Structure formats: structure tokens, C-alpha cells
Amino acid sequence: MATWFRTYYEDEDLWLYIEVDDEGWAARQLSFGGQDSRPVRAASLEEVLHLRDDADLVAMFRYEQQYGVLAEGAMDCWQDQPQAAEISAEQFERLWAEARRALAESA
Description:
Blueprint: E1 3-9, E2 14-20, E3 26-33, E4 38-44, H1 45-54, H2 57-67, E5 85-86, H3 89-105
Antiparallel strand pairs: 1-2, 1-5, 2-3, 3-4
């Protein structure tokens, strides 16, 4: 079962939201930063794997420029991160839609 959580990186003034899959890997990741809480990242493992397998480096570069880079590695210690808290799937989906819309418009 998927898990959704958030954590805060004070040094970067960045809220990070991650959807973790059944195996403990980041499936989707988004972040908001600054005083205006602007979307910075909204990357999806499914999209990254599709680009890796079916596209070229230019398409992957464009994706990373628009939506950012997805965290690598297992997310098994997220509870130890600053201000970490589990969030609902609904809250994650709302933030995901907001970030994707904003990042798509800024491209």
C-alpha cells in the first residue's frame, strides 16, 4: 500500500512531499519552496521510466527541466526527517495537481 508524507528542509526553505510505493521507493515527488510556496518539482517514476525506455536524452532533459528529478533510493527512514508527517492521499493529489499545473504553465 502506498504511503504519502511530507518533510521540511529548512536550509533550502523547501517542503517536500513524496508518495512511496509498496516497495518503499518514491513513486512521485513534489516540492514547494520560498515564501510564496511556489512549485519547484513534480516528478513521477512512471514518467521517468517511460522516458528512459521509450524516448531520448533530449526528452529526459526537458522533463527534468520542467518537473525536476525524482529522489533515488528507499524511503524507509522518512519518519526521521525534520517535521515529517504522514499525509492523506487526497492531500497529496491536490498538491500534485497544483504543482503539475503550475510547472506546465511555466514551461
